[in-house]
Amino acid sequence: MPVSIPTKDKFPQTRKYTYLNTAAEGLLSTDSQEAVAEYIRAKSRGSINRPKLYEVEAETVGLATQFLGAPEGSVTFLANATEGLNLLANSLEWEEGDEVIITDLEFPSNVITWLRLKEKGVRLEVVEADGGMIRLEDITSRMTPRTKLVSVSQVSYKSGTQLPYLAELGAEAHRTGALFAVDATQALGRVPVGVENVDFLVASSYKWLFTPHGLGITYCSPELLDRLTPATAGWYGVANIFTPDRFERFEFKEGAARFAAGMPNFSSIYALRSSLRYLLEIGVEHLDTSLAPLIQKMRAGLVDLGLELLTPEEQAYHSGIIAFLHPAATEIGSVLAAQDVIVWANDGRVRSAIHLYNDEAEVDSYISAVGGVLEKLDA
Question: Tens digit of pLDDT for each residue in 58-83?
Answer without folding.
Answer: 999 999 999 999 999 999 999 999 99
